[in-house]
Specification:
alpha/beta, eight-stranded mixed beta sheet
């Protein structure tokens, strides 16, 4: 019986040592492995076993936590699996963290060691030397024969097998400090089982799939969801260091990719990119992701010839819900029907269940005697926050959704992205969906700004296509075109033409970073007041 992440990888490597486990496409602007490289399961197991021996010889074991900062390099997987083999926990760090964020990530998890490579090594040394308990750092490119001994005694509870902690994954931290999600082996295996058995258009074949993912390794999608699905099915991860629209199709064709992951801005950027000679040569069966606008999805599928399957999931839930089984809904923001062992409830602000078609917060749990089975084990050192999220026996997601009578679920928006204008709740995602179809709009993010008469007003931050001009006339044109999709009160009251919309490493829009702290977006010189257009008749 498989109980841990390493055991699942070991089973795959023993059964199919020659099958590919990890593929890095060639990339000339990447400093590491620019020529690309592919690793078999057998090669990977040899590397993991060798590393695990080094860790054990240095005194690491159950209860120890080791911070990792590799970016999208093979070392990330080798160290994660080696630590899992010996019962220790991996703490992946975001390579773009500022120094104080690195300090927090390492210190808060009480890491006994940092293993890293790349450009942040000097920053890490400075950070770790300044800690109350200096944490040793290993530069894996130096190929050290011996690892330093742990600077701390084991801190985590060395629970047995599946219930043992496997990773600490930090959330995005859009408000306050990032929360450290404790992810157990049970949670990791549940993620792989959930995705691997999604069914319908997600038709994985054992030993035959190559999944292309340009997302960062420190994220749940790669290190839990994708890794455990691929090893469960003895398939291959194709990992690029970051998303590049210019090489996306070449990568996919040259690596023999059969399925892809997308997030956030990836589909619209591909739809609005120049035609590539490779975009019709691929063998992709499906893409899975979240956050694509329905208008973009239709254009994408018509142009590139494979379905984009919207899914819903969180770091805390491990499992996902996917719109992959028939009958699918091609319209709206449908993300599928819930299937066992998950069950859901849609509630109002007092946790009262709501009838079909009425938007409310999505609550989820596992069927059976343990509603938390397969979910995260809790927020590190934040038991009160953990219990708050699990109040009344359900995990509160913070996502607003609605459910059709036949069970189909539709994403409305994050609870924090609902704009409250004159008593009306307006989903920023709905406005973004209407604006992105404009051929002059490259990307868009909608947010709330204060309003003297309506409490909040809608602001659309827009990046224009290269040949479009940021003028008052353009703002008027955008609003007028949107009238065919939006009732008048949902039109933007302000449009700001920005150079870029900041995103995280996982392509999630950072709306709070579009304007500097303390700046009123309405006063920005790039902003056009379009409130008068909402008052026009007709």
């Amino acid at each position: 019986m498989v109980n841990t992440v390493f055991e699942q990888f070991f089973v795959a490597a023993e059964a199919s040592p020659n099958l590919p486990f990890l593929c890095y496409p060639a990339s000339q602007d990447r400093g590491y492995l620019p020529e690309g490289r592919e690793y078999s399961y057998g090669e990977g197991l040899e590397t993991v076993d060798r590393l695990a021996g080094k860790y054990e010889s240095a005194g690491y074991g159950p209860g120890h936590r080791v911070a990792m900062l590799f970016g999208n390099r093979p070392d990330h997987f080798w160290h994660l699996l080696a630590l899992n083999k010996i019962g220790a926990s991996a703490v992946p760090l975001n390579p773009v963290y500022l120094n104080h964020e690195l300090h927090y990530g390492i210190e808060f998890a009480e890491c006994a060691l940092v293993v890293a490579a790349g450009s942040r090594l000097n920053d890490l040394r400075e950070v770790c030397l300044g800690m109350d308990v200096p944490v040793p750092i290993v530069d894996v490119d130096n190929a050290l024969e011996d690892l330093p001994v742990p600077c701390r005694a084991p801190g985590g509870a060395p629970d047995l097998a599946g219930d043992r902690e496997a990773l600490i994954i930090y959330t995005s931290g859009t408000t306050g400090r990032p929360k450290g999600c404790i992810i157990s082996n049970t949670s990791c295996l549940a993620a792989g089982e959930s995705y691997g058995t999604a069914g319908g258009l997600i038709n994985f074949e054992i030993g035959k799939e190559r999944l292309y993912i340009p997302l960062p390794t420190f994220h749940m999608n790669v290190s839990v969801y994708t890794l455990n699905t691929m090893t469960r099915l003895q398939n291959c991860i194709v990992l690029q260091d970051r998303f590049r629209a210019s090489t996306w199709w070449f990568d996919i064709v040259s690596t023999g990719t059969t399925c892809v992951h997308y997030m956030g801005l990836i589909p619209p950027l591909l739809v609005k990119s120049e035609k590539s000679e490779y975009e019709t040569r691929h063998k992709v069966k499906f893409g899975q992701g979240a956050g694509v606008d329905p208008v973009v999805r239709e254009a994408f599928e018509n142009r590139f010839g494979f379905p984009l399957i919207e899914a819903w999931g969180m770091t805390e839930t491990s499992r996902a819900i996917q719109n992959s089984r028939e009958p699918r809904d091609p319209d709206g923001r449908a993300f599928g029907r819930v299937r066992p062992p998950l069950e859901i409830r849609i509630v109002d602000d007092e946790d009262n269940p709501l009838p079909p078609e009425v938007p409310g917060e999505l609550l989820v749990r596992c069927q059976g005697p343990d509603p938390r089975h397969g979910f995260f084990s809790g927020y590190l050192k934040q038991q009160e926050e953990t219990e708050k999220a699990w109040r009344n026996g359900w995990f509160h997601t913070g996502d607003i959704v609605r459910q059709r009578k036949d069970g189909m679920l539709y994403f409305v928006d994050r609870k924090k992205n609902i704009i409250r204008r004159s008593g009306e709740n307006i989903a920023a995602a709905e406005v973004e969906e209407a604006l992105i179809e404009n051929p002059n709009v490259k990307s868009v993010a909608v947010l709330a700004v204060p309003d003297e008469f309506h409490d909040e007003e809608i602001m659309a931050c827009i990046v224009l296509m290269p040949n479009a001009e940021a003028t008052t006339e353009m703002a008027t044109s955008i609003c007028e075109r949107a009238q065919g999709r939006l009732i008048r009160y949902k039109l933007p009251g302000w449009i700001s033409f920005v150079d870029e919309i900041p995103v995280t490493s996982t392509q999630k829009v950072q709306k709070g970073s579009i304007f500097p702290d303390g700046v009123d977006p309405r006063e920005d010189p790039r902003t056009v007041d379009t409130r008068h257009l909402k008052l026009k008749k007709g």
